[in-house]
Amino acid sequence: MPLALYALTVGAFGIGVTEFVMTGLLVPIAADLDVSIASTGLLVSGYAMGAAVGAPALTALSRQLPRKMVLALLMLIFTVGNAACALAPSYPLLMAARVVTSLAHRTYLGVGSVVATHMVPSQKKASAVATMFAGLTLANIVGVPGGTWLAGALGWRATLTQ
């Protein structure tokens, strides 16, 4: 498999960790931002809503651009959104940053899948997509527990900057 395919896998890993690690950060975020745990749970829903809305909108807006440029722009949105999450001084700003971060989620996975299939011969297309999506699987197996551990050791904001 081409090395660039593994870059897509790393991107999928980062997206997966960002989506799911919040479940392990609810208590420290609630304590730090002085909100209820139930309110911090809405950060998961806010991300999901942003991803659901962002995919069709960003896909439509970016369809004329080169796919590699789209992937780079999506990762820029994702990175800036995560940095804003880590720096958010209040719950409303954290929620807004989570929604911004999520906008890139599904569009990255869709465009990345198409790019992955164009990197390999036709008989390896399914394997290429599976390799990219292995990043999401690893995010749940390694990234979420690791991010939760990191939050316990260095604070929840450290998890969102990694």
From TrEMBL:
Cross-referenced Pfam families: MFS_1 (PF07690)
Membrane-topology annotation of the record: Multi-pass membrane protein
Subcellular localization: Cell membrane
Main location: membrane
Domain (Major facilitator superfamily (MFS) profile) ranges: 4-162
Gene3D superfamilies: MFS general substrate transporter like domains
Entry keyword set: Cell membrane, Membrane, Transmembrane, Transmembrane helix
PROSITE patterns assigned to the protein according to its UniProt record, in alphabetical order: MFS (PS50850)
Transmembrane intervals: 7-31, 37-58, 70-91, 133-156
Protein name per Swiss-Prot or TrEMBL: MFS transporter
Organism whose genome encodes this protein: Pendulispora brunnea
